Amino acid sequence: MMGSISGPIWVVDYDVPVKPAARRMAFYRALWKLLKLHGIKKSGRSTQSVWIIDNEEIARDIHDLAKSYGKSHLYNATPVD
């Protein structure tokens, strides 16, 4: 997913309610805008509602955005293998 990483990675685990659908879609539009601002393509970086990234600033931005639409947890992880 991210290639060889020597330092910590950031995991953002979020839950944005499915309903109302318009609010959920607004979250994804805002997320896509945030990613574009940071020069990140959507594919290959995320699973359903988890982002794994090696940039703390971007992880915190995603976390803050997700918290404004639902729940979010931010973790700092270190690859072991």
Characterise this structure.
This protein has 81 residues and is α+β, with helices and mostly antiparallel strands. 38% of the residues lie in helices and 22% in strands. α1 packs antiparallel against α2 (56-69). It is globular, with a radius of gyration of 13 Å. The two termini are 13 Å apart.
Helix/strand layout:
Layout: E1 9-15, H1 21-37, E2 50-53, H2 56-69, E3 71-77
Antiparallel strand pairs: 1-2, 1-3
Q: What are the salient characteristics of this protein?
A:
Alpha-Beta Plaits, 81 residues, 2 helices, alpha+beta, three-stranded antiparallel sheet
Tell me briefly what this model is.
The chain has 81 residues and is α+β, with helices and mostly antiparallel strands. 38% of the residues lie in helices and 22% in strands. The chain has a single domain, classed as Alpha-Beta Plaits.
